[in-house]
Amino acid sequence: MKTIFIVKIQLESDSYEFKKGDIIEIPVLTNCSRNAEQKVMSKYIGSEYPTFKFISTMKEHKLFKPIL
Fold it and tell me: Model pTM?
C-alpha cells in the first residue's frame, strides 16, 4: 500500500532564492522509504537543480493526513 514519506534534504550549493545549507522537505507517495529516496534522486538530479544530500526519510503520521 502506498503512503506518504517526507524526504528531508540539505542543499550543497546555492540556487535561485535558496542558499547552501537550506533544508527542504519533499513529500513522496510510495510504498517504502528506499523508493522515496530513489524517486527524489531520479526526479531532482540534473544541471537545473542544486546538489543536495539526504538528511532523513520518515513515514507520515496517521493522525494528520496531507491536504492536497
Answer: 0.81
